[in-house]
Amino acid sequence: MLKCQRILRPAVTVNARVALRRRGLQTATRAFCSPLRSSRAVQKPYHWNYTRAFRTSATCHKAISFNLADIGEGIAEAEVLQWFVEVGDKVEEFDPICEVQSDKATVEITSRYNGTILRKHYEVGDMAKVQAPLVDIDQEGSGGESSADTTATKDQQTPTPQQPTPSSSSGATGDAEAHTAHHRKEPVNFVEVEKALATPAVRRIARENDIDLRTVPSSGKDGRVLKEDILEFLDNGGVTKDAQTAKSDSADSSTDTGAHVHKRSGMLLTREDTKIQVKGVQKAMVKSMMAANGVPHFTYGDELNMNNLITLRTQLKPIAAASGVSLSYLPFILKAMSLALNDYPMVNAHVNDDASEVIYKGAHNIRVAMDTPQGLLVPSVKNVQDLSIFEIAAELNRLQTAGAAGKLTTEDMSNGTISFSNIGAIGGTYMRPVLVCPEVAIAAIGRVMSVPRFDDKMEVYNAQIANISWSGDHRVLDGATMARFSNTMKSYVEDPHTMLMHMK
Question: Does this UniProt record's set of keywords contain Transferase (predicted)?
Fold first, then answer.
């Protein structure tokens, strides 16, 4: 057998060369690539480079599906906020593909491959499934030996880089145009237009109102379109296509229909019923509240005298500002809560669904509710027990900035151990907060009010009072434990200098 192979190898090679001279280039290529030949000489002929140069089938490339990776524990889908690529674009490893928003965070998806975008499986606003194809990428120059069969079994209408016009006709004219465009190295039907700079929240408003952001006058830095810009654009008549059609039918359609733009959400509201899909952050809130509905809550309330804390903050605020940190009351309150948790670790715990196990959490990762353009988000300040008040303030500044820009990460949104809501920043004096399962405690503080109080000598003075409300999981905590914990925290808030004695 070995002798036969040695005899056949030069014979096949000679035949291939003769075919190249006598019968033309295409016949020689078929001789090299014929699947009926089984010897090594045919599978890998001497002039292998000629075969690659004249192969025009899709097997010269490797089309792969780039799946949406797991972007967080328990996340099954994410909303596509914006695409950074179009079909026909060339991408390299680590180039941004798109931006998605789960019920926990906004994530920028980057490419793991070099190649050409063949297909986008979702449009902006669609819910992309985790571990499902996000885009198809043609890895150019990968050869036909790796996954040509997989490519062939995919959609036969998927264009290759040599044929980037899926909407063109299949005749000879269309092929010639595609061939000419390929040699000009200019995209056909895929014109790359400069994208407007805007946050995901602004893009969502534009998408809901069918507005091209490039037509909106911008006032932000580097030409960034701000939320105020698009709301002003809407107020000036830059409304949806349906509203423009209605306006052409009537000289004063907005007056007739009572249409107006909601200042916060940016939605065009009319007197007609409007149906919207619950998704993203709102869907996460639905799931969280449904889970909390099955937990037996109890509520405890008290007053915090803020006079001493106000004085201390006034003294430290310029020092923090010199370091670029905005110092509010919240860092002091979070630190006071952390110090109290050292004495009452059962308040900083997680419980499983049937309350058969309670886990005392070692880290004090305090969630802070934030009102953002995307809705209610609750990121956490990690390891408060190890941070100074200035470090807590700096981290809060970072989280607030990221929340406003829609850039909170999965890490920011995960691993919370206890929650806090500063509802007083908006208004209100009392609130009954709802637990964030599997946590067992949450607090809410109202606005600071000037009220008359009596001192030890029964003399009236002006007291700055804030009301704090606690909700606890009654399967794990009782009222007495919550009251003692709250009293300890209250002592630190009302006399903030004592916190210095317990900081490490």
Answer: yes
How far is residue 350's CA from residue 347's CA, in Å, rounded to a whole number?
9
Given a cut of 70, is residue 31 above it in pLDDT? no
Phi then psi dihedrals of residue 289, to 5 deg: -70, -35
473 is known as an active-site residue: no
Distances (CA, A) of 368 to 38, 78, 421, 449: 68, 23, 6, 22
CB atoms within 10 A of CB 353: 11
Which residue among 182, 297, 474, 502 is the active-site one? 474
pLDDT digits (tens, 9 = 90+) for 140-191: 654 433 333 343 334 433 444 444 444 333 343 444 444 444 444 343 333 3
End-to-end Cα spacing for the chain: 81
Reduced to 3 states, what is the DSSP secondary structure of residue 462? strand
- CA–CA gap between residue 83 and residue 148 (Å, rounded): 28
478 catalytic per annotation: yes
Q: How many CB atoms lie within 10 A of CB 266?
A: 21
pTM strictly above 0.70: no
What DSSP string runs through 15-79?
A: HHHHHHHHT-HHHHHHHHH-TT--SHHHHS-TTHHHHHHH--SGGGSEEEEEE----STT--EEE
Catalytic residue among 478, 495, 497, 502: 478
Angle between helices 479-494 and 307-322 (to 10 degrees): 60
Question: Between the CA of residue 122 and those of 87, 136, 225, 276, what are the distances in Å?
Answer: 12, 11, 25, 19
